């Protein structure tokens, strides 16, 4: 009996998706893993700070902001975002050591937002591999990664493991 062995990107992205199932965010589950030389060094997911009620207990803490429209007609569109949650990438940086991050790869289920990209750019990592797009910040994040010399790639084609998806409520 022969079975196909998963490539490393698929293997670690699968783990990131499994980590995301720990999130209690009703809007989106995000998971991330830190890898150095094929060795898993840390995992994290999005959620409220430890010891505080999360969105499933106290509801999302929503703020509204106007952002430029992505349509050809321009203008502004109102977007809502939850500020109760610490992003998965931020938690990963909080709970791993700088020495472990030097030369490492971050696998994250979702393309990092601008704030997380800035933090990752100064973290010592050399590559970010993501699956789901975050169009709002894609161009500026891609430019930042190019400026910093950090490899930045979307894993394609890829299908997340069964029962790890949450509909995007944002």
UniProtKB/TrEMBL annotation:
<keyword id="KW-0378">Hydrolase</keyword>
<dbReference type="InterPro" id="IPR016193">
    <property type="entry name" value="Cytidine_deaminase-like"/>
</dbReference>
<dbReference type="InterPro" id="IPR016473">
    <property type="entry name" value="dCMP_deaminase"/>
</dbReference>
<protein>
    <submittedName>
        <fullName>CMP deaminase</fullName>
    </submittedName>
</protein>
<keyword id="KW-0479">Metal-binding</keyword>
<dbReference type="InterPro" id="IPR015517">
    <property type="entry name" value="dCMP_deaminase-rel"/>
</dbReference>
<dbReference type="Pfam" id="PF00383">
    <property type="entry name" value="dCMP_cyt_deam_1"/>
</dbReference>
<dbReference type="InterPro" id="IPR035105">
    <property type="entry name" value="Deoxycytidylate_deaminase_dom"/>
</dbReference>
<dbReference type="InterPro" id="IPR016192">
    <property type="entry name" value="APOBEC/CMP_deaminase_Zn-bd"/>
</dbReference>
<dbReference type="InterPro" id="IPR002125">
    <property type="entry name" value="CMP_dCMP_dom"/>
</dbReference>
<keyword id="KW-0862">Zinc</keyword>
<feature type="domain" description="CMP/dCMP-type deaminase">
    <location>
        <begin position="7"/>
        <end position="152"/>
    </location>
</feature>
<comment type="similarity">
    <text>Belongs to the cytidine and deoxycytidylate deaminase family.</text>
</comment>
């Amino acid at each position: 009996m022969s079975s196909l062995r998963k490539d490393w990107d698929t293997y670690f992205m699968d783990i990131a998706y499994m980590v995301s199932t720990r999130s209690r965010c009703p809007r989106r589950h995000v998971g991330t893993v830190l890898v150095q030389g094929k060795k898993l060094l840390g995992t994290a997911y999005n959620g409220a700070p430890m010891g505080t009620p999360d969105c499933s207990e106290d509801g999302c803490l929503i703020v509204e902001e106007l952002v430029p429209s992505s349509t050809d007609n321009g203008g502004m569109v109102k977007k809502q975002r939850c500020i109760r949650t610490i992003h998965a990438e931020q938690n990963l940086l909080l709970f791993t050591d700088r020495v472990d991050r030097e030369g490492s790869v971050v696998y994250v289920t979702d393309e990092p937002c601008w704030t997380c990209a800035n933090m990752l750019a100064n973290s010592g990592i050399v590559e970010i591999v993501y699956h789901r797009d975050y169009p709002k910040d894609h161009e500026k994040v891609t430019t930042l990664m190019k400026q910093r010399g950090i490899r930045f790639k979307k894993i394609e084609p890829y299908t997340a493991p069964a029962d790890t998806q949450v509909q995007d409520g944002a």
